[in-house]
Design a protein that fits this description.
single chain, elongated, 382 residues, alpha+beta, two-stranded antiparallel ribbon
Length: 382
């Protein structure tokens, strides 16, 4: 098995028994030499030589050299040994410690991955707290920002940073330890509480609501109606709110808001009709499933040739346009006011309302009179 080497008149070879006698001794078939696996793996600052950087092949002096390298009672090496015994002990200890760590711990790549997963989990908890705060403000119709929403004012009690920042601080004071630790250890650019993050979270929530509404339409009756009307907001921006009316899986009639569209550059019937169709396509609704349209009586909405309703119906004949019932009621009241009797009645009702509404004392007297009438005559309620 082992290659024979001629020493004078005697042929010698490596002995298998040496592998059992000297722990850490290995044999290289390719080089026909012996190495100390401990010293090769962890050479440290020891002198490099035989058994470490070069194979040991002098089988005539093998026992003498191996005893001096591996056994504690060996004081010094022969010239072929290369290193002292204490250096071998240091290498063996390092090797044993490495194998112990390697056996008990996961590989480095798995440790890094586990640390990354733990950090992601922690960040998810932090983001959940912040998202719930934004959602609370959105559901309660509470403005998020204050006089100044800059991070340099978060600890300044004299500055009102807004409802969102106050609610965040309230969560920390109420025992949200993860959020408290996050603010204490994170970088200034990773607090997740800036106005930019607030807007991003609101956008994500809006997209989530859109997807939910669209899925409910698709899993319900699949057909839907559209209602829209442009309006100018406080920022002097012409907004087009687009809403849908449909029947869900439980056979309930639902009316849900989809999104606002900025139509300030052009409010013509052509532009508005295209904006509505773009919204429906963008959210994933098939315009061919639209069965009605509801708008006010403005010319750009219900005009016979260039209005939004006729334009969309021209592309999708089953999408019948209708006037909004609230606008129809308003028109009825306006036309009825041309009658003298109706106009006088509306004026009298308006003066009565003003007479009581702008005087707490008169309202109190009215309430007392109504209570007395109910006690004496329960039918007076009618």
């Amino acid at each position: 098995m082992y290659k024979k080497t001629q020493f004078g008149k005697t042929s010698r070879t490596f002995q298998s028994s040496w592998l059992q006698k000297y722990p850490g001794l290995v044999y290289s078939v390719e080089e026909d030499g012996a190495y100390c696996v401990h010293c090769v793996t962890f050479p440290g600052n020891k002198k490099r030589g035989k058994l470490v950087s070069e194979p040991f092949q002098n089988w005539k002096k093998a026992i003498e050299v191996f005893d001096g390298h591996f056994f504690p009672d060996a004081k010094k090496h022969s010239k072929d040994g290369g290193t002292g015994y204490q250096a071998h002990i240091d290498s063996r200890i390092c090797c044993e410690q490495f194998m112990s760590v390697r056996k008990n711990n996961a590989p480095v790549n798995k440790q890094v991955d586990a640390a990354l997963q733990a950090r992601r989990k922690k960040n998810a908890v932090v983001l959940e707290s912040i998202t719930k705060t934004v959602l609370l403000c959105a559901r309660q119709n509470i403005a998020l920002c204050g006089h100044s929403d800059s991070s340099k004012y978060y600890d300044d009690e004299s500055v009102n940073c807004g409802n969102f920042q106050s609610l965040i601080e309230f969560r920390v004071e109420s025992g949200d330890s993860v959020l408290k630790e996050h603010f204490a250890t994170c970088g200034k650019n990773a607090t997740y509480r800036s106005p930019t993050i607030q807007n991003e979270l609101l956008d994500i929530m809006g997209q989530t609501v859109e997807r939910k509404v669209v899925n409910e339409i698709k899993t319900g009756g699949k057909f839907y109606c559209v209602s829209a009307d442009e309006v100018r907001d406080n920022g002097n921006v012409e907004q087009l709110p687009v809403c849908v009316r449909f029947i869900d899986e439980s056979d309930k009639i639902r009316e849900e808001f989809l999104r606002f569209v900025d139509v300030s550059p052009d409010t013509s019937g052509e532009a508005l009709s295209q904006a509505i169709l773009d919204v429906l396509t963008d959210v994933g609704l098939d315009p061919s499933m639209m069965r009605s349209q509801c708008y006010d009586g403005a010319g750009n909405m219900t005009g016979k040739t260039k209005g939004v309703g006729p334009r969309i119906q021209h592309q999708y004949p089953r999408a019948l346009p209708f006037w909004c019932t609230a606008h129809q009621l308003n028109r009825c009241v306006v036309h009825a006011s041309n009658s003298t009797l109706v106009r006088n009645m509306m004026g009298t009702v308006d003066r009565i309302a003003v007479f009581f509404n702008y005087s707490p004392r008169r309202q109190t007297c009215l309430a007392e009179c109504r209570a007395a009438m109910e006690v004496t005559s329960p039918s007076a309620r009618r």
